[in-house]
Amino acid sequence: MAKVKLSQQTVREFRRARRKISMLAGNLDKATPEAIRVIGEDIMTDIKSSTPGKGVPVKEGVLRSSGRVDAAPYAKGVVLSFGGASAPYALVQHENLQFHHTVGEPRYLVRGVERWEPNGVSAQKARARLQREIDKLSVAKGGGGLKRDRGGRLRDARGRFV
To answer: Which residues of the chain have pLDDT under 50?
Structure first.
């Protein structure tokens, strides 16, 4: 296999591209968990806004008030949970399809996730959050002079697509 020698200009362009990619990745690593949390909070709000036949069962409101959205300890994501110390009670209320709830529904957590819409408000908020983080790169120090054209596509200082 023939060895290819890269010009100094090509090497510089690769290094510049590597810096841009590293900055973008660093920014998205910070923004992504926050954007995912927005989606988790939206799902939890839907579940907690109980009505007859929808949401977490409510008798005195203890179960509803125990709903939490926490960062996932093992991945970039969130954990939606109910019950806290009363998790066994929350699990029974969730899994027993024979219970009749005047307010709320069985399988409230699963059904809340199923009701979430990828093109809904929380997904739009999450995308907007990520977009703001990307846009910060164009004005940040060393951002490489990235700008958006009229179509919203990123371009470098020479007008090339990034």
So the answer is: 1, 141
Q: Yes or no: say if 147 and 160 are a contact pair by the CB < 8 Å rule.
A: no
Q: Which of 152, 137, 139, 148 is nearest to 26 (CA)?
A: 137
- pTM for the whole structure: 0.62
- The structure tokens listed for 45 are 């709000």
Query: What residue spans define the domains of the chain?
Result: 9-155
DSSP assignment string, 48-90? HS-BBTBSS--SSSHHHHT-EEEE-SSSSSEEEE--GGGHHHH
Helices 8-48 and 108-115, interaxial angle, to 10°? 130
Burial of 158 per CB tally in 10 Å (0-12, 13-18, 19+): exposed
Q: Is 81 left (phi over 0), alpha (psi -120 to 50) or beta?
A: beta
Are 71 and 128 within 8 A, CB to CB?
A: no
